[in-house]
Amino acid sequence: MIDKTAIIGENVIIDDSTEIGPYCIIKDNVKIGKNNKIASHVVIEGNTEIGDDNKIFQFASIGSIPQDLKYKGEDTKLLIGNNNIIREYATFNPGTVTGNHITVVGDFNLFMMSTHVAHDCIIGNHAILANHATLAGHVEIQDFAILGGLCAIHQFTKIGESALISGGTMVVQDIPPYLITSGDRAKIYGINKIGLERRGFSKEEVENVKKAYKIVYRSKLTIKNAIAQIQNEIDISPIIEKFIEFILNSKRGITR
Prior knowledge:
17% of the residues lie in helices and 25% in strands. The protein is α/β, with parallel strands linked by helices. The protein folds into 2 domains: 7-141, Hexapeptide repeat proteins (UDP N-Acetylglucosamine Acyltransferase, domain 1); 200-248, Udp N-acetylglucosamine O-acyltransferase, C-terminal domain (Udp N-acetylglucosamine O-acyltransferase, Domain 2, Up-down Bundle), CATH 1.20.1180.10. A hairpin with a 4-residue loop joins strand 26 and strand 27 (187-191). It starts with 6 loop residues before the first strand and ends in an 8-residue tail after the last helix.
């Protein structure tokens, strides 16, 4: 399953069911699980572990050292889960000792052409990064988030569950779950109604998200008072609880 032109380093572990295409370079200490399909000219290096059933297209760069001048060759890690699609020229860097020591990618994510996942990023499951979407270091992308093409996420910023970031958007503060964001400097434009319905949210759940959004973004209340009003007026389901907790735990502040 390994093409004869591929170069495989020492101490590399590759499951027999995984395909390695022509002219790939898999360097020392990489671990690759079952049923992965790795096309031609892919470079995988560093302390990188890849799970099962991933598809990695030609010219992707996986596990090269962080683009951080503070990095001095420390033993940090990149962990990629299962069933991800990584398209052409996508780049993934491991963590740093000034961060979590690890970059983590979950399951069932789509990384389109030329996307970049920087050091110490944490990506959940079922996220989509469109062409040229770029994550700075220490960014967190939660489940089912969608990032449009050519958008950029500032370091230490968090993107909430099922948030939708429009193409070309520059995000410098956290985006709460379920919201739509757009603009050269990101602004909130409402809730991701279609995305929530596609995930199977009920009409009542979508309506409660809309009410919570309006209290935070339309009432002109402080965050503290807006959260108090949500707790008083809306049934605190797990969905609304996630929305509240995200806002309360935001370190960079939320996009208003």
